[in-house]
């Protein structure tokens, strides 16, 4: 995927005054040598791939083990997610979409980079790139293949276009071999990409190899 950052300016994509000040401060600290750019990149990656998505992972794990909660999540995602205390700007209006053996869901924002920050953390660079935003709609199967996810032709792909008014959370299928695992352990199988739709939940063996579970 092209990692070019998105510089398109839409009303609901512009930086807030606070975000603009943070960006200016970040640039100044790097310029003055007070912050190591590599360390800053590592910090951002931590929030993108580990700390941020843990919120959504807990939601998914609860849906896997609690049928009543799953039903609430699918019918009123905002209220169900709020049970965990995850709410706020960029996550006010949520819809959960569930993967099945016949259907795979993929989320994109074709206009800019609308993303459910309260449950997934900081959006990755590729999510904001023009290449992903355009091709995810035109050629979703090809895009998924570039992420290493090749789905059988019999599996249909549904693409959901996020907006300033509505954001989506993909509930991936629970992987085989996870029977008997605790809710916390199950959450470790859920990755950011699986909740956007560019990946699947990890198998227990994959999670062990990645050091996510013991």
Question: Can you give a write-up of this model?
Answer:
The chain is mostly helical. The chain has a single domain (17-209), classed as Nitrile Hydratase, Chain A, CATH 3.90.330. The protein is built from 12 helices and 4 strands; from the N terminus they run H-H-H-H-H-E-E-H-H-H-H-E-E-H-H-H. The protein is globular. The relative contact order is 0.17.
Task: Map the helices and strands.
Elements: H1 17-32, H2 37-51, H3 54-65, H4 67-75, H5 77-82, E1 94-98, E2 103-108, H6 117-120, H7 125-128, H8 130-138, H9 140-146, E3 156-161, E4 167-171, H10 183-187, H11 192-196, H12 204-209
Helix pairs in contact: 3-4, 8-9
Task: Give a short overview.
The chain is mostly helical and 214 residues long. 46% of the residues lie in helices and 10% in strands.
* Overall number of strands: 4
Text of the CATH class: Alpha Beta
Named CATH architecture: Alpha-Beta Complex
Spatial shape: globular
Strand-residue proportion: 5-15%
Distance between the termini: 32 Å
Give the uncertain stretches in residue-range form: 1-16
* Number of discrete domains: 1
CATH topology: Nitrile Hydratase, Chain A
Q: Which series of helices and strands comes N to C?
A: HHHHHEEHHHHEEHHH
Number of helices: 12
| Radius of gyration, in angstroms, nearest whole number | 18 Å
Whole-number average pLDDT?
85
């Amino acid at each position: 995927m092209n990692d070019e950052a998105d510089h398109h300016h839409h009303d609901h994509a512009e930086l807030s005054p606070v975000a603009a000040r943070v960006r200016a401060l970040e640039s100044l600290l790097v310029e003055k040598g007070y912050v190591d750019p590599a360390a800053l990149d590592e910090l951002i990656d931590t929030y993108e791939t580990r700390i941020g998505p843990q919120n959504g992972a807990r939601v998914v794990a609860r849906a896997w083990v609690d049928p009543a909660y799953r039903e609430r999540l699918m019918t009123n995602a905002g209220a169900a997610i709020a049970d965990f205390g995850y709410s706020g700007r960029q996550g006010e209006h949520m819809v959960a979409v569930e993967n099945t053996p016949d259907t795979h869901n993929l989320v994109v924002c074709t206009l800019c980079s609308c993303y459910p920050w309260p449950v997934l953390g900081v959006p990755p660079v590729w999510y904001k790139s023009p290449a992903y935003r355009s091709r995810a709609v035109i050629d979703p199967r090809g895009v998924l293949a570039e992420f290493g996810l090749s789905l059988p032709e019999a599996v249909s792909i549904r693409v959901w276009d996020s907006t300033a008014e509505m954001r989506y959370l993909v509930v991936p299928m629970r992987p085989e071999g996870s029977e008997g695992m605790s809710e916390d352990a199950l959450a470790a199988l859920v990755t950011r990409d699986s909740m956007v739709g560019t990946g699947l939940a990890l198998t227990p063996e994959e999670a062990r190899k990645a050091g996510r579970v013991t």
